[in-house]
Amino acid sequence: MFTSPSVRVRRRPTAQQSRAEVSSSDSAAPKQTLKRSINASTMQNAATLPANSAEFGQQQDQDDTGYSAAQSSLHKKQAVEPKRPVWLAPFVQRVHEPRVTEDISEPEKPSTLQQKKDSEDVPIFGASAASGRMGLAAENMKPVRGTEADTLQTTDHILLRGDKHAVFDVAAFPDAVRRQLGSIDPESVPIAAGLSSESSFAFVATPTTCLVWSYDNASSVMGGVYRLAMPDPDDATDFAAPLVALVSVGDIQSDVGVLACSATGQLRFWDRVAFGLGGTDRFHSRDLDLPDASDRCVQISESFAGLFVVATAKGYLFQVSLQDAQGNIELTAHCLSRSAGARTGMLSRMSSLLGGSQIVAAAADSSDALVSMAGGGRTEIRHSRELYVLTRQRLAKWVVSRAHPERFMYSMDIVTALAQAAAQRLGMDVDVGVYDIATTRSGDVCVLAGLQGLQSGGREQLAVCILRSSRVSTEPDVVGLWPLRYAPDAELSQSGPSCPRLVLPEGGPGMFVVLRTAVIGLMVPTAGALFEEVISFRAEDSILGISTAPRFPYVQHESSESNLVLMCAGTGVLQVCIEVGKIIGAVASAGVDTGADADDGEIRTNSAAWPSLGTRIGKAPRASSPEREYQTQIEQAVFFRFGNDHNPLLFTIKSQATGVDPALETAALRVSQSILDNTSHFIVDRLDLGSHLNERLRRTRAVMQFIADSGLASKISRETRVQLCAHSEKLAAAVALWTYQNDVWAAKRGAAAQLLDNLVASFLESAGLQTRDSLRMFFRQHVAAIGDVLVFMQRNLAALRRALDDSESGRRDSQLVSYEANRVVVGALQAAFVYRFQNATLYDIDGSSESNGAFERWTEHPAIVDLLVQRLEGSYRLCREISGQHCASVYERIVATTLPSDEDPSDASRSLAIFDDAVSISHPSLPDAAESDSSEEARMRLISDDPYVSSLALLRETIDQVGPLANLCFRVFVDRITYLQATGSSEAHVLVCRYDAVRPRYLLCLVPLARASVAFRLAEEYHDLASLVTLVFTTERSNAAIYLRKYVERFGRDFADTLFAYYEKRQAWASLLNAQDSSFDVWLKEYVEKRTERDPHGLVAQIGWIHDVKMNDFSAAATKLARAGRDSAEVDQARTMLSLSKLAFVAAECQDGARNEVHARLEDALEMCEVQENLSQYLMAIVRSNRSHAAEISWRRRDDVSDKKAVLDAAMLTTTPEIRHERPALYIVYNELVRCIWNGRMLSVEDLVDALTFPDNMPATDSALASCSSDDAEQCNALIRERYSLAIDILSRASISLSEQTREAALKTIWRRVFLKDDWSGIRKRLGGNVPDSELRAELARTHLHTVLESCLATRELSHPDWYLLPADVFAAADLDYLVSARLAPRFASEPDAGSGWQPLTSTTVPALNKDYGEEDSRLRAAIKCGLDSYYAEVLRTVTDQVNQCRLSADADASDMDAASSASTEALDVEDEDVRMESD
Questions:
Q1: Any idea what DSSP says for residue 280?
Q2: Beta bridge partner(s), residue 401
Q3: Cβ contacts of 767 within 8 Å, gap of 6 or more
Q4: What is the Cα gyration radius of the chain?
Q5: d(CA 420, CA 432)
Q6: Which of 109, 810, 1003, 1146 has the fewest C-beta atoms under 10 angstroms from its C-beta?
Q7: Rounded mean pLDDT of 436-457?
Q8: 207 versus 1149: which is more confidently predicted?
Q9: What letter would DSSP give residue 99?
Q10: Is there a contact between 376 and 387 (Cβ–Cβ < 8 Å)?
Q11: 1160 neighbors 1132 (Cβ within 8 angstroms)
């Protein structure tokens, strides 16, 4: 027997009274952070919904006969308790109510640090205390979290939870249904699906079969799947899915009836499916007898209990009744027709309907078709309901009744009305299409329309339209039109799966627009709140069906929530919930707005006022801030997508920003920070803190994973990615530390094992936070300060150890404290770095991303760097301390080893050295770990593996900690240096120098600790090639060649250069240049070239030619030898190098012009050596000949005290008293030049010019050179006679290596002193009278000027005028700054130059030099006044004529010789011809 829908209530177990109801005064435990204290205030239960009167139920009980008193009482119960799935109740009690901690002990004292801050109210789900069901709370509540036990029962069902909406997983598909859906191709086989939230049954139907099952296992006695055969399965003319409606079976919640209608109008009705006596084969059937054979049934709707309406595509309506007047099962149907008593005036506007009682289709036009229909409210006629029929063009209204004939009320052009309203609302003409219709609780008609022309790209914009009529029989007017922000990407249709559906549960105000892969949650705009939320589904989880709208009458009160139950293809049954009460409450709290404007969607015209919507409850913003929207989307994905692979919802996020999106960055950081600080209201607290920390770690990683999966990684800057990664790193470190602490508690160690617990308590106390369980409080709320805790530990560790060192037992505890501190540091930082390296690709913070900017990470802080260096040094000292007491073998190795920072500069014998023939072995060979561990002594004394029991075990554990500590220390150094270099900080160089000192020290300290293999691995990882070379020669001497070859193959040229530098540093030249591996030759050659370029005067530059000779590159060897000869500071060495260079050139057989030029330059350099040697011999001969005693003078006795007087004598004997008096400063310079020549040191070109041109008393006497050979004496005399022209010649040959300024200054100096050599005043007097030309020529020919010019032009053939200057152009004043300040003054610094031999002079040297050069200029001016210019011109002309005449004579002689040679050749030819003729 069928019962009234108002009393069909699911019998649910009554929810138990929550703890919050028992003790509502208790509050959640306060939650505080280091920088801010978050005190959760006491949270009360959500306010219960107002009790509803039973008048409406009583009225319905009076109207509908046949309803029992028991059913009426159930109806009253329903008015108080709206139905909702039973599994929602635990969520209400546990999650959405305040968490209450029941503690019978003394209450915990609040924290002393009360940094209160008004926390933002984050909307969460709540529930009505009266209903006891899951849902959304009607009041704002602060974030609260359940316990660990709640997590498994609640979070698995939540698929999405927003501020004002949620999606729950109700039930999965049974296996039979899943197999059926898996075997069907949706593209070829039509599927119909739906469910009834009232009976908790669902169905999936194909043209042949319908599967029915109960998705509420709690209330279903028989949880099977029932297979029903659909009517007309063999009809091949129209392969369409049947129309199926689920029929409630009275108050029986475990059974359901099924009404099915085929597309051709075949009806079948199963009154009971689960408990039917005849099973699924027992059904009632009937044929609708469609008036048009081509018409098809497209929709079925339930008007009220036992009464359905079936509509066809052409608009024919059939009323189907399931029971007779007595309530017995009877399947009857008839087609609705126009009533005879209807008003013809209104019906005349529907050309598709016929007059009288004739049956006429609602869509008579071929272009029109049925779109949808919806039931309305009750009418004044008993057992009557309104029925709205929507076609593509028109809207019609009927009144249907189970006891009275149907009545047709009106039909209107809905499309035209909506188009006019849209044009008025939007200010532009648009094309309008209609998709669905529904009715509100107040009787308004809600139409879902599509507006074409608003969106770019031709996409259609959905809109919600509200129509209202003043009377039941009058056509409604459009009172509101609200376009939706969401624009579907897929093309919509007015029928089929692509047709959007409009659902108003319980008549609103919440509504849903259901698309194929999305659900849009809305509020009826007349409620005053514009709410719109889109819930997207994955393509493989498209929506198959939705719950049917409940029949009128609705419950009298407005529910605080709107629920939609739907079915997804891949998941099962879901429930979408909108918290209507919270939305309206939020709008009400914003203020009351009594006048709605056009922006709210209300339509007004100038001619007539549209019906007012009444006083509205404020206005809610259409869109929240971008940061808030991003934050919500990220939170949904992080907490409901990741970790739930079966979630059918599609979590996406889009950004329209160009480049970096600041709003997205802010949202991502907020979500990640809330998880790190444990302030997110989505996090559920657990008693198992380890699981809690791991869950938070997964969630922080999911933030970046979601952004990357959405393709928006480029929208956040590298700084943000570094911060997001840092949050996860800190949580990873917290997980590692909590695991360490659990191991410590499990092992039940001594007081030293409580180091972390005690330090955390002290750390929080120093921050003003006090609690009974400091460690758990820290890991729950203050993980962000984990780096500060490590630094705090190190800063207080020294004081703690000093306090423990007073006694023997205390010293033991002190050692254990240091050991535990290492475990804490290594555990935390290693976990952080492991997470960073494993997720480097996800965060894109490695490699080329450095170009995007550099940002300091928490592990790169200077305090962390200092922490690790101190822990390394402390660990090494601890190993020395323990081994000194318990392990002599390790202690001896430590004592015998001198680390780089321990080297004493005065004791070079203890430094690490290379093992070759040039360097002594000073570092002992240390055993590796295997050798150390296999020692008999260690094996005998290692009685326990527990470091708390055995000191030897503690030593071994500490030694094992040095390697990981060194690894972390080097990594932090590298990261810190990279950051400073990227930011251009001046601290980078300082830190690099510190790192270069720290790294080799702690790499090599592993060798005496028998961990050489660890040292090798670290040196390889951090590319410390210098330490690798040292390790090879200190630990693997026997296999050094193998190791070197392996590293050369791995690191290539870099390692080879390091090896060469190692040899060079230790001056192992034999090993460097005698490498047996041919692969080194090319690299060694390049290394020598680089070193030579960097230091042309270095030792490598001087011996690099040896390797060139080895490689048969004589040309390069000759070049290096020539350079070394020129750069040599000693004459003999320079002569030797230049001679070898000349020999190498000969070996190379240089024939091209460039090499001939080089050969000429080499000859020039050799000649300079020869000139200096001859000058030295001359000076020694002069001194020897003028000494009164016959003492033998040693040649080139460098800086010998006994030779100082000889140097002074040589300088004095070659100069006159006049020049020493007139130019004393230049005489001092000359004196130093003589000393260098005497000691055999090479002079520069400028110095050699000064040495040749400054002295004015250099006689060429044979007696002075009597001890020399005849050749040497002749060379010395030639040097003295032509020293000025020789100086010009030397300058011309070396000019290619001199700057322009140097060349010009030196050339001026030569000619100035040439001009000053002659007495032009005396010459003028002698030539001032009547002097014949012959005497003039003879007088000028006797001048030094004539000699110099003749030598330059005739003998040395120096080109004119390049190397000849006029007297007016050789003044020193123009080059005084260069000659004094740049050239001579630096030579005479305050400190003597041991290499050059210059002696320091006083500060008066510079003014004195200026004065001396000024004296030369004064004498030159006097000479010019005496006619020097004319004399110079005459001498130059005379010498030029003589040279030209000599050249002509030489050319004539050469021509004569050539002619004689030609005549002789011709005579010989004639003679040969005569001989041949005679022989013939």
A1: G
A2: 384
A3: 34, 113
A4: 54
A5: 10
A6: 109
A7: 83
A8: 207
A9: P
A10: yes
A11: no
- Tell me how far apart the alpha carbons of residues 1273 and 1260 are, in angstroms, rounded to a whole number: 9
- Helix (H) / strand (E) containing 334: strand 329-335
Gap between the terminal Cα atoms of the chain: 158
Q: In the structure, what pLDDT confidence band is assigned to residue 95 with cuts at 50, 70 and 90?
A: very low
689-709 and 662-676 are packed helices; what angle lies between their axes, rounded to 10 degrees? 170
- 324 Cβ contact list (under 8 Å, min separation 6): 330, 332
> Would you call 1030 exposed, middle or buried from its count of C-beta atoms within 10 A (0-12, 13-18, 19+)?
buried
- Give the tokens for residue 791: 């630094």
Helix axes 888-896, 862-886, angle to 10 degrees: 130
Helix (H, G, I), strand (E, B) or coil at 1261: coil
* Element of type H or E holding 1163: helix 1153-1186
- CA-nearest of 516, 478, 759, 753 to 603 is 478
Contacts of 856 (CB under 8 A, 6+ apart): 979
Cα separation, 673 vs 683, in Å, equals 12
* DSSP per residue, 621-642: -SS--HHHHHHHHHHHIIIIIT
**Cα–Cα distance for residue pair 363/1166, rounded to 1 Å:** 119
Tell me the pLDDT band of 1042, cut-offs 50, 70 and 90. Answer: confident
Contact 937, 924 (CB under 8 A): no
In whole angstroms, what is the distance from residue 1233 CA to residue 1250 CA?
8
Tens-place pLDDT, residues 699-717: 999 999 999 999 998 999 9
Q: How far apart are CA 964 and CA 1024, in angstroms?
A: 17
Please return the burial class of 453, using the count of CB atoms within 10 Å of its CB with bins 0-12, 13-18 and 19+.
middle
Closest alpha carbon to 1107 in 1078, 1129, 1066: 1078
Higher pLDDT, 784 or 1131: 784
**Contact partners, residue 770, CB within 8 Å, separation at least 6:** 109, 111, 112, 764
pLDDT computed for residue 79 by the predictor: 37
How many residues belong to the chain? 1480
Please report where in the chains the tokens 């369409």 appear, as a residue. 240
Q: Which residue has the tokens 């020897």?
A: 1184
The confidence score (pLDDT) of residue 359 equals: 58
Strand ranges in 524-642 using DSSP code E only, listed in sequence order: 532-536, 543-546, 561-568, 572-579
pTM: 0.65
CA distances from 868 to 40, 626, 963, 964, 995 (A): 39, 43, 12, 10, 12
pLDDT of residue 1408: 86
CA distance 532 to 771: 45
Report in angstroms the alpha-carbon separations of 1468 from 70, 82, 1217, 1463, 1465: 159, 143, 70, 9, 5
Distance (Å, whole) CA 231 – CA 228: 9
Instruction: Give me the helices (H) in 550-640, please.
Output: 580-589, 626-636
Name 599's Cβ contacts closer than 8 Å, sequence gap at least 6. Answer: none
Higher pLDDT: 1076 or 1289? It is 1289
Is 1018 a residue whose pLDDT tops 90? yes
Quote the CA–CA distance of 576 and 802 in Å, as a whole number.
65
Sequence-ordered list of residues with C-beta below 8 angstroms from that of 145, at least 6 positions apart, any chain = 95, 99, 681, 683, 684, 685
Q: CB-hemisphere CA count at 13 Å for 179?
A: 4
Q: Which two tokens stand for residue 3?
A: 């019962």
Nearest to 1055 by CA among 1027, 1078, 1033, 1017: 1027
State the helix-helix crossing angle for 1131-1148 and 1114-1127, rounded to 10 degrees.
160
Question: Which residues are CB-contacts of 692 (< 8 A; sequence separation ≥ 6)?
Answer: 148, 685, 686, 780
Judged by DSSP in three states, 58 sits in: helix
User: CA dihedral in degrees (955, 958, 962, 968; nearest 10)?
Assistant: 180
Partners of 391 in beta bridges: 370
Determine which of 67-76, 598-607, 915-924, 934-943 has the lowest per-residue pLDDT on average.
Answer: 915-924
